[in-house]
Amino acid sequence: MRNIDKNHPIKFKDGWCFATINNRLAEIYFDEEWGLYGYCYVNKKDYSKRDQKMIEEDVKNYQFSYRNKKFRDKLRDIIFPIGEIKYDESE
Predict the structure, then answer these.
(1) How confident is the model at residue 57 (pLDDT cuts 50, 70, 90)?
(2) In what helix (H) or strand (E) does residue 72 lie, and over which residues does it extend?
(3) What is the enclosing helix (H) or strand (E) of 47?
């Protein structure tokens, strides 16, 4: 088990990374303003060897469960709702 500081939650910036969600490999998408707003399950074998090394590193740090529109960080024991992206329809 890695040494995770539970007092310092994840700070989201714009982007994506690999994680486990409900014990399955996934890509998670996050935004600085809205937090974690989406994910999709993926297969590790669909990625190159270089990407698979990145998957191994990301999965050590990002492990979540998702239920009732809430993510639970398994390593830090923090629960937070899924972000809601609001589109500006005036444009």
Answers:
(1) very high
(2) strand 70-73
(3) none
- Separation of alpha carbons 49 and 52, rounded Å: 5
Count up the domains in the chain and report the number.
Answer: 1
In a domain, 61, yes or no: yes
| Residues 86, 34: Cα–Cα separation, whole Å | 9
Say if 10 falls within a structural domain: no
CB atoms within 10 A of CB 2: 7
Kindly report the length of the chain. Answer: 91
Domain-embedded: residue 40: yes
Q: Which residues contact 49 (CB under 8 A, 6 or more apart)?
A: none
Q: Is there a domain that residue 2 lies in? A: no
pLDDT attached to residue 71: 87
- Quick: pLDDT tens for 6-43: 555 566 667 889 999 999 999 998 877 777 788 999 99
Q: Does the pTM exceed 0.90?
A: no
